[in-house]
Amino acid sequence: MLCHACRVHVRRDFPYCLRCGTLRRGAAPTSFAAPQLRGVDDPALLVPLTGQVTTLGRGADNDVVLSDGSVSRRHARVVRDGSGFRIEDLDSFNGIAVAGVNLHGGSTRLADGVELSVGDVRMVFEQPRDARIGSRTMVVGTQLTELPAAVPEEEVPEATGPLTARPRRRSGWALKQVPADGGAEPHSVLSNTRTGVYLQLDEREVFLWNAIDGDATVRDLLFAYADRFGELALPRIEAALAAFAGAGLLRGLPGQKDEEETKGWRRFWRAVYRALLKLEVSVPGLDGAVTRLYGGFGWRFFTRTGVTLTWLSVVGGLVAFFGVAQGRQHLLDFGGAGVWGPVTLAAGYISALVVHELAHALAVKSYGRKVRRGGFMIMMGMPFAFVDTSDMWFGSRWSRVVVALSGPISTAALAGWCAVGAAYLPVGPVSATLFHMAFGLYLNTLYNFNPLMPLDGYQALTDALRLPRLREEASAYFRKGLWKDLRAGRRPAARQAGMAAYGLAVIVGTYGFLVLALLAWRSRLGEWLQGRVDAPWDSVIVAVVVGLVAFPVWAAPVRWLIRVVKRRRAEGGRRPARLVDGAAVEGAA
User: Measured between alpha carbons, how far is 434 from 414 in angstroms, rounded to an integer?
Assistant: First the structure.
């Protein structure tokens, strides 16, 4: 359901639109908890807005008395009407400001989370929310990255770095608790507001983040964690700190250097390494353009009428394709279109790709979130288009499912219209080209729905199952945990059996996709080099290119091996720090 004022999805557990404050149609505000004004500088200042009119001022006859010299006797009032809440300035001396704009005796609507100043008293307006609704975003300072799985803890954990290091937080971060829906446990999202990188945190990782104050050492964090959660989880703490640093949110870890302190040639090789992993060309600052597109026409696709027409296009297209078009058309037969058939087909695929990514972007805007950037990337030698939807981590679980599925569903709807044209237009170049377009788009839809690849279908599946690291955890269990259970004589439970089966499918599917990509590159290069390059140099070129294409696969184990060798050399005959009776000690080998 969209807000009838700002065209953004509204939540049924709120009476008002959280973006513009407009009353949701059919909602009864009295059945919800009262909204409130919360003090920014004074956390004890909580003003529940229970009445139709709430007056604020320094005088004792006001509903809310603000004993501050900058506040007039009768300063302002908050009024609830049929469209939400508004604040009015009562000709005060110092005025009121909402979102940094001084009203000068006027009034304005209050949207959820907006900051306002009554004189010098700063407050935040918060819509009604119950225990299931997350707290507001806290901003400090100025493609879903998630924390790696916790390292299995040994009986005597080993430190990989000095426990005397004092990590410090960088400025420019935002932390928000995300609503828990469908019985799931609440979690939080930590973002780098400078780079747009996001981390999903659980309760323990939030505790660690809040405990980092620049003075606490890693040892202090370790014992604070043990005092809170009852375990000396050194590997988990180090993994969390490494994730914070990797997101550009932490400094002061052992061996960590700022980008400006890194030598030029190191930066060069680091850039080459990242390009080999994933070559990305992105366009930042897309949010303004997408917002205008959504406000102009895009919101219509998310109304009940728009959603109904989309699904009718999908279902009707499938009926037309398999029921009629297949009997009239044939693959690789463009009905006499000549070279223009494949050219038109390629242009149609590119247009469908743009529509696919635009559907993701418009779905993000339908929830009032931001589209930070978009572009193209090459990974394992294959081209991909993308839109950065990571801001949806601040949304609910099902809103992320909708955003993930909007792309392939839009592709299936386009395929449906092409299939209808192929089925009912006269046999000829146009209907034949539309048939090939529909066939290709249906294949693209199935590919994007594939739950084994980290694409749209997988993202929707992980959110639906509340398993954000499904691929990693399932693969790890199949490689290690399953065999450990079998050797110990333990029969895997239903969940573990499902994880093992999915892990096996992921491994087979990933390496199968890699083999197909390598064979395709080898075949294309071999044909192109034949007669142009003498043996054995043609084989050398093919091997180098194939090795670069497969770089994301073999780079990780090579890096792990290099780290192991460096660690053993650095130890120099000394054992790493160990925890003995609650204290970290070092000893000679």
Answer: 10
The answer for residues whose C-beta is within 8 angstroms of residue 157's C-beta and 6 or more apart is 232, 233, 234, 235, 578, 579
Which three-class secondary structure state does DSSP give residue 155? coil
Tokens of 254: 């052992």
Structure tokens at 228: 């809170």
> Which residue shows structure tokens 């917002």?
291
Beta bridge partners of 79: 53, 86
Give the mean pLDDT of the chain. 78
Instruction: Extract the residue ranges of the chain whose pLDDT is less than 50.
Output: 130-160, 183, 259-261, 577-589
Report yes or no: 448 and 353 within 8 Å, Cβ to Cβ. Answer: no
CB 452, CB 509: distance < 8 Å: yes
**The residue type at 392:** M
Cα–Cα distance, 393 to 376 (Å, whole number): 22
β-partners of residue 118 are 96, 121
β-pairing verdict for 279-284 and 373-379: antiparallel
Task: Give residue-wise pLDDT tens across range 3-31.
Answer: 877 888 887 767 777 667 677 777 766 66
What SS3 state is found at 175? Answer: strand
CA atoms of 199 and 577, how far apart (whole Å): 29
Phi and psi of 201, rounded to 5°?
-120, 145
Residue 86 has phi, psi (to 5 degrees) of: -140, 155
Measured distance CA(316)–CA(308) in Å, rounded: 12
The β-bridge relationship of strands 84-89 and 76-81 is: antiparallel
The rounded distance, in Å, linking the Cα atoms of 500 and 505 is 9
Dihedrals φ, ψ of 392, to 5°?
-70, -10
CA distance 171 to 139: 9
DSSP per-residue letters across 357-409? HHHHHHHHHHTT----EEEEEEETTEEEEEE--GGGGGS-HHHHHHHHHHHHH
Tokens of 189: 């999202």
* Tens-digit pLDDT profile for residues 238-265: 888 888 888 888 888 766 555 444 556 6
With tokens 């939540």, the residue in question is 11
Give dist(CA 389, CA 25) in Å, integer.
Answer: 29
C-alpha–C-alpha distance, residues 416 and 309, integer Å: 11
d(CA 432, CA 438): 10
**509 in Cβ contact with 453 (< 8 Å):** yes
State the Cα torsion 351-354-355-359 to the nearest 10°.
180
- Residues 333 and 422: their CA atoms lie apart, in Å, by 13
Cα 458 from Cα 445, distance rounded (Å)? 13
Task: Name the token pair of 389.
Answer: 């939807």
Contact 476, 465 (CB under 8 A): no
Asked if omega into 536 is within 30° of 0 (cis), the reply is yes
DSSP letter string, 530-578: TTTS-TTHHHHHHHHHHHHHTHHHHHHHHHHHHHHHHHHHHHTTBPPPE
Sign of the dihedral defined by the CA atoms of residues 227, 233, 235, 237, in that order: negative
Question: What single-letter amino acid sits at 341?
Answer: G
This prediction has a pTM of 0.67
